[in-house]
Design goal:
This protein is α/β, with parallel strands linked by helices and 346 residues long. It is 37% helix and 17% strand. The protein has 2 domains: 158 residues, Rossmann fold (3-Layer(aba) Sandwich); 154 residues, Glycogen Phosphorylase B (Rossmann fold, 3-Layer(aba) Sandwich), CATH 3.40.50.2000. The chain has 11 helices and 14 strands. The strands form 3 sheets. It has a 6-stranded parallel beta sheet, with helices on both faces. A 6-stranded parallel beta sheet has the order 11-10-9-12-13-14, with helices on both faces. A two-stranded antiparallel ribbon has the order 3-4. The N and C termini lie close together (7 Å). InterPro entries: Glyco_trans_1.
């Protein structure tokens, strides 16, 4: 068995899919007899000029040995954790610093195009190119992330889908009358599209918003302005068992982020045999969702989404047909495959 360190970037007070992925990987490796721990450093992304300092902190670490014992393998996950130095460094890339890459020049980026910010962006490209080239093997969490790595850095990689932390616990119940949104409440998840679409439906379909995040106040104000009233419930943080139950009884799951890296919500919805309502620019979500087969895909337009909400609200049998077709797509996403790829014979 091996001594393995997983390198993870942590924004204080924020928890999401990347954090759950790291914790699940740690637990699965330990379950297989490896000695595993997580090395996490706080990431300072604001102001933009501080990003390089956070990145270089990883470069200064020496984790080739701990307490006099060698570390056999390092698994890096997202920017800037892959700057760590180690003779056997494997990448399982969640994402790079998207504000400097595919989000650059959009409202989702903090880079303003000034000479100072352009210089920081160029530095990120340079250090990413060097650090990512050092990896003994490069995996990503989706084809979408692999395409970005090839597009921006000219580096090849292999997609390796992570299972949900709820794998084995999700189940399919009856199709109740609500749409579930389980995403973190920030602008990139576009929950405002769902709210605006609800205001345009012809059926009184309900939505349950399960999650926390910086966009909550704005979304609650929008729901009030749209007159949605009791049709929308903001649950905030919900415990795991409650979220699993919400999946099990939803009519469908709404998940339409901007060019998502992967999207645990999609594989969790399919694990509970729920169809997914999404958009044609949702990125990694579209590696699983097929329009009319296991979900519904439209342009990111509230009127088009409203049509799909009405379609499933009026026909629970259609929701069941689509949802049941999604389950086989995620059954093959297992920790056995992930561990074998990342660790191999370590």
């Amino acid at each position: 068995m091996s001594r393995i360190l997983i390198c993870a970037t942590q924004v204080p007070f924020v928890r999401g899919g990347a954090e759950y992925l790291v914790e699940s990987l740690r637990d699965e490796l330990r379950r297989r007899g490896h000695t595993v721990d997580v090395v996490a450093l706080p990431f300072q992304w604001h102001p933009v000029e501080r990003i390089i300092d956070s990145a270089l902190a990883w470069r200064l670490l020496d984790i080739s040995h701990v307490n006099g014992e060698p570390v056999d393998l390092v698994i890096a996950t997202k920017f800037p954790s892959y700057l760590i130095r180690h003779p056997r460094k494997v990448l399982w890339l969640v994402h790079q610093h998207r504000q400097a890459y595919d989000w650059y020049g959009t409202p989702l980026s903090d880079f303003d195009g000034s000479p100072a910010h352009r210089a920081v962006r160029e530095q990120i490209f340079r250090i990413d190119g060097r650090a990512l080239s050092e990896c003994q093997a490069r995996y990503t969490i989706s084809r979408n992330v692999s395409r970005r790595l090839e597009r921006f850095n000219g580096l090849s990689s292999t997609p390796l889908y992570p299972p949900s932390r709820y794998a084995g616990q999700l189940w399919a119940g009856p199709y109740h009358d609500y749409i579930l949104s389980p995403a973190r409440l920030d602008r990139a998840k576009r929950i405002d599209l769902l709210l605006t679409a609800l205001a345009r439906t012809t059926t009184p379909v309900r939505a349950i918003i399960a999650g926390t995040g910086p966009d909550r106040d704005r979304l609650q104000r929008l729901a009030a302005e749209l007159g949605l009233g009791e049709r929308v419930t903001f649950r905030g943080f919900v415990p795991d068992d409650e979220l699993i139950d919400l999946y099990a009884h939803a009519r469908a799951v709404y998940y339409a982020p901007v060019d998502e890296d992967y999207g645990f919500a999609t594989v969790e919805a399919f694990g509970a045999s729920r169809p997914v309502i999404t958009t044609d620019d949702a990125g990694g979500v579209l590696e699983f969702v097929r329009h009319g087969e296991n979900g519904l895909v439209s342009p990111p337009d509230p009127a088009a989404i409203a049509v799909h909400l009405d379609r499933l609200a009026a026909d629970p049998a259609e929701a069941a047909r689509l949802g049941s077709a999604g389950r086989p797509q995620v059954d093959a996403i297992t920790w056995e495959r992930v561990v074998q790829a990342l660790v191999g014979q370590a």
